Amino acid sequence: MPLPLCRPHRDDVRIAAAGLLGGLLLWALGLTNSQGWPVLGDGWLLVPLCAMAGLELLRRTAPQTALVLGTLVLIADQFTLGSLATTLMFTDLVYAAVLYGTPAAARRIPVTTALITIAVTLGFLAWFRRPEALLIGVVTGLVSFAPAATGVLVRNHQEAAGSARLRAEQTALLAEMDRAQAVVAERARVARELHDMVANHLSAIAIHSTAAISLDDPRTTPQALTVIRENSVAGLAEMRRLIGILRDDSGDSRGEPVAAPTLDGLGALVEQSRTNGLDVALTVGAGGGLPAPIELAAYRIVQESLTNALKHASHGTVSVAVHRTDGALTVRVTSPYGDLDGPRAPGSGAGLIGMRERTALLHGTFEAGPESGPDGKIWQVRAELPVDPADEGVSE
User: Fold this and answer.
1) Is pLDDT at 189 greater than 70 in this prediction?
2) Residue of 358, 313, 319, 374 whose CA lies nearest to 338
3) In 3-state terms, what secondary structure has residue 325?
4) What element of type H or E holds 320?
5) Each residue of 127-146: pLDDT tens digit?
6) Strand partners, 371
7) 292 burial class (0-12, 13-18, 19+ CB within 10 angstroms)?
8) What is the Cα–Cα distance from 394 to 385, expressed in whole angstroms?
């Protein structure tokens, strides 16, 4: 069995040195394990002592090799006067073989030492036929089985502690991942709310300010400035409300409630869009009692669709239809699609992304794109938001 060329652990060096010095001290004091049978001379016990001390250097790097060789050294020690230090170092090798050895060795060694203890006890009891022979079995158990059993207990404790530490690290990692995901989700939610609340007002401001600059008409300028002022004031109010929500770190949910938009507010939203210059036809056949997330998502989808129509739609009527179907709320917004004559507000595509995200959060379906209509090409936004009958009538 080849010995690995590994540098011994510093604790193993200390154990080997302490065992060797302790054995030399016992030898100098004349304390031996002699049982009275013929043995080798007095100095021969130093050979097993030094060999066992050397094997202690391998207790961590090659524990099974050290145990096999240590067993042979302990047998050889029985033919000398014997040293208690040699025996104690052997028990440490048994303990180390279980603690640092392979899992298979950790299972086999306690069983093997238990069987050896039983066999030695029965053998000497049958040979001497005296109760004192049981003491030999006890000593054998203390030298072999007891350190092996101790090694099993310590190893199981270390493995349990390692498993608990690993679970704690995994739990901390999962908690950090959940926290990061929550931060990302909250940032996305705030971005959607900010875009939906302010984009409509800013788009109207951009379009009417462009019209006021490009059209040198004394009647157009006051009307455009009026629309710009109304949308500026409304946009600032929405911004202040959102900033107030974000800055509120009191954690008190009993404070002033923030009313979430519902389908009842679609009329006012359409009137505002008409003020901004859109020709909007609204049809609502949804009824009441819908869950608050469904109504909020439907409102925001209509709001963003009207914003996009204001920025990109050509002249014509924008149709908004919200109605119930079997198990779902359907939102459909169509607008004329084609070249737009007049001022146009820039777009980034965030509105479509926000509508798609809102629909996905409610496990619905969302479609947006150009289609052919009876009056020509149109741009259609269509979202289906599933409604669980068990959630109907739940407002929050």
Assistant:
1) yes
2) 313
3) strand
4) strand 317-325
5) 888 888 899 899 999 999 99
6) 378
7) middle
8) 16
